[in-house]
Amino acid sequence: MLTDVRQQLLKDILSQPTAPFYEAHVLRCVTAHLQRAGVPCFEDPVGNLLVGVDSRAAYGRLLREKSAQPVRLFIAHMDHPGFHGVRWLDEKRLAVKWLGGSPVRHVAGARVWLSDGEAVLGEGRLRKIKLLKQGWAMDTAELHLSQGLASRPPPRRLFGGLQFRAPYWRSGKRIYARAVDDLAGVFAIVSTAIDLFKRGKAGPPPFLGLLTRAEEVGFVGAVRHFDLGWLEKRRRPLVCVSLEASRTLPGARIGKGPVVRLGDRRTTFDPGGLRLLADLAERLLPGRHQRRIMDGGACEATAATAWGIPTIGLTLPLGNYHNQCFDGGMDCPRTQGPAPEFVHVDDVDGLLRLCRGLMRPNLDWQTPWAATQARLRKNAQRFKGYT
After folding, report:
1. CA of 234: how far to CAs of 165, 237, 238, 325, in Å?
2. Residue 240 to residue 242: CA distance in whole angstroms
3. How many Cβ atoms are within 10 Å of 85's Cβ, its own excluded?
4. CA distance 342 to 255
5. pTM for the full model?
6. Res 84: pLDDT
């Protein structure tokens, strides 16, 4: 069960304003929590946050250690679909550009918040909305502010997203927020890091967290990090653990446990790593986890796989993916219109258990299929007389 301290951490992170390329609120919040807990972290040259090391030199040392234990590179993204300011039309109207997925029905008059990266400046409603040519998301709109601002910041400093009764709230075991995808993954990495770096523990663990920017527009932060070339100089094994919150699908239902993600819309993941993860989930969460190819979308595991990194995935079943009212719930008045995202608290707790479990030192990363081989050989032996 999530402790009160962890629930407060989750609330703090999920309450932060964010949009592609405008992740400063999330970065400040996460950095403050990590520093208070004594967890090292630093920004890479493209603005992603590395967790578990305090410099490029420490990053390199961890990857060059002689060890059969792989470094687990947990990856999640700090952004969520939203808009950027383009130009002021007058003192209360701002032309905006939307980035990422969005609802496409009942969006005229949708409530939104506006920020300059330092604070939320106000609220308004979307008007004169144009969709992308493909029709799967908003493209441009006008933001009509409910009140004029004391000063008008340059449009390029402004960003925002859909607004609901609150940035975050609980109803029973459901956690609602304007942005769960992928701030819940960010929370899981921060929480895992805090557990691993508790004072008194000896030596740095084989752990890295990579909190990325602009995932919603093509994994931009992850791609730019991989292109730095830092991972190419590694000497020890490495496995990427992609953490996501993904649209509900048959076999991936809210409240039934976190999902061992076998693949996404673009690729399947590393079979050896998935065998180990599936066995771990059977031990830690028997009957309380799910397994599925989550092909409702693609994730940063695709980028890691494209860069040659063995990759596995975990995901939370997500209600109202990209704020589209697919799954009902609170503040969801019309089907496929704007709605807050939501997850189940037990699924979040299960995700944390699996993240911590993946850091156990006794996991057999080298021969994850050994037990399967033994079972198959035993079965084949039964039929020895037939060959």
Report:
1. 47, 8, 8, 44
2. 6
3. 21
4. 11
5. 0.96
6. 98
In the chain, ranges of CATH 2.40.30 domains: 82-165
pLDDT value at position 150?
A: 85
The class that CATH gives domain 82-165 is mainly beta
Q: Can you tell me the distance from the alpha carbon of 74 to that of 366, in angstroms, rounded to the nearest whole number?
A: 19
pLDDT band at residue 251 under the 50/70/90 scheme: very high
CA distance 132 to 119: 29
Residues 133-143: tens digit of each pLDDT? 999 999 999 99
Whole-angstrom distance, CA of residue 190 vs CA of residue 49: 11
Q: What average pLDDT is seen over the chain?
A: 96
Which residues belong to CATH 3.40.630.10 in the chain? 4-80+169-366
CB atoms < 10 A from the CB of 339, how many?
29
CATH architecture for the domain at 4-80+169-366 = 3-Layer(aba) Sandwich (3.40)
Q: What is the pLDDT of residues 43-97, one digit of tens each?
A: 999 999 999 999 999 999 999 999 999 999 999 999 999 999 999 999 999 999 9
Instruction: Report residue 165: phi and psi, to 5°.
Output: -60, -30
Token readout for 239 is 């496995």
The CA–CA distances, whole Å, from 206 to 3, 53, 64, 325 equal 25, 10, 11, 40
In the predicted structure, residue 279 carries a pLDDT above the cut 90 = yes
- How far apart, in whole angstroms, are the C-alpha atoms of residue 353 and residue 285? 8
